Amino acid sequence: MRGYLYRDRTKLSAYSKAMFALALQKQGQKEQLDMLLSNLRQFVVEDNENQTAYLKLPENCWWLWYGSDIEANAYYLKLLAKTDPKGALAPRLVKYLINNRAHAAYWNSTRDTALVIEALADYLKASGENKPDIAVELWLDGQKQKEVSITAADLFTFDNKLALTGEALQSGQHDLELRKQGAGPLYYNAYLTNFTLEDPITAAGLEVKIDRKIYLLKEADKTVEVSGSRGQAAAQRVEKYERTELPSLAAVKSGDLVEVELEIDSKNDYEYLMFEDFKPAGFEPTDVRSGYNANSLGAYMELRDNRVTFFVRALDRGKHSISYRLRAEAPGQFSALPATAAAMYAPELKANSDEIKLKISD
């Protein structure tokens, strides 16, 4: 049976390849194991900016047992824990799985949650990360702010936070340094909230990114062939516009129609997100009622006096776009604050686009 599986390995899913490779490792079939590891490596997608990695599975097979993204990556982590626990790929896979918890403490089901916890336990034991013995110092601008020790006894309970607020952190450039002594890896996160006077405001984001583009719409003469009353071919005019992207400080005329497109890039699967686009003051939406408008994300659109807000129930990993239309009205030069993205129940997940300035002539 092992010979049949190895012969037909190219027909196996990535999930099945990981399970088969685990069996090969247990039986000491090194040559065949190396081949399966090489086959699986072709499905790996690495995100250097986010320091994550995952198996890229075929689309539209989520309802099959081997189409579970979480379970497949859990089995791949179990395999790496047996073959290369201290390599660069395993910790990136761990971070991806941790980031893709659906409800903070678990994943999508009891089954995939159990598999992930088992895989994480295998990795911790194999890599030795469950037995650290390190001392960590945090220095800010040459001054030591905090010192902690991390051992197996207090791995999950040690004091792991340093917060600087108000006058403790002046404006300007700062250097935050972490110094480690001892055996074991050190993981850290840094968050900064600030008030800025920069003009224009530039884009920012990591886990989720949002890019706003504004297009001038010019009506184009478009006809299509339709069936007439007697079945004859008849030409019928349809609504069609040509889009021209507007750079910052571009000028439009009062009455012109523009389209705002929010391009969203998500590195993980998320739920309950809010996207707010702050419109330039001289423009007004063409829609007059809030509600669902058949957009690709199934988002609820809410029209407010200074912004248009989209509420998204579920956002899959990958690139998406959502758009709406404005009409130029009041002459003048106006600034549109950046469009923002935020998780409604996890405020640390946020992003913003660039600011844009537009002119309206009478």
Mean pLDDT: 91
Write the CATH architecture name of the largest domain.
Sandwich
The fold-level CATH name of the largest domain is Immunoglobulin-like
Q: Could you give the distance between the termini?
A: 78 Å
Low-confidence stretches: none
SS field, number of helical segments? 6
Major sheet characteristics: 6 strands, antiparallel
Overall structural class, as computed from helix and strand content, comes to alpha+beta
Biggest sheet: strands side by side, in what order? 14-15-16-12-19-20
* CATH class designation of the largest domain: Mainly Beta
Q: Say what oligomer this is.
A: single chain
Give the amount of beta strand, in percent: 35-45%
Q: Considering DSSP H and I runs of 4 or more, what fraction of the residues is helical?
A: 10-25%
Radius of gyration (CA) equals: 27 Å
What are the secondary-structure elements, in order, as H or E? HHHEEHHHEEEEEEEEEEEEEEEEEEE
| Shape designation | flat
Tally of structural domains = 3
Number of strands: 21
How would you describe this protein?
The chain is an alpha+beta fold. It folds into 3 domains: 2-127, Glycosyltransferase, CATH 1.50.10; 133-183; 208-361, Immunoglobulin-like (Sandwich), CATH 2.60.40.740. It contains 6 helices and 21 strands. It has helices spanning 2-7, 14-27, 30-41, 69-83, 89-99, 110-127, and strands spanning 44-47, 52-55, 133-140, 143-151, 176-183, 208-219, 223-227, 233-237, 241-245, 250-253, 257-266, 270-278, 283-285, 291-292, 300-303, 307-315, 318-328, 332-336, 340-343, 346-352, 356-361. The strands form 6 sheets. It has a 6-stranded antiparallel sheet, with no helix packed on it. A 5-stranded antiparallel sheet has the order 9-6-11-17-13, with no helix packed on it. A 3-stranded antiparallel sheet has the order 4-3-5, with no helix packed on it. It starts with a helix and ends with a strand. The model has no long low-confidence stretch (mean pLDDT 91).
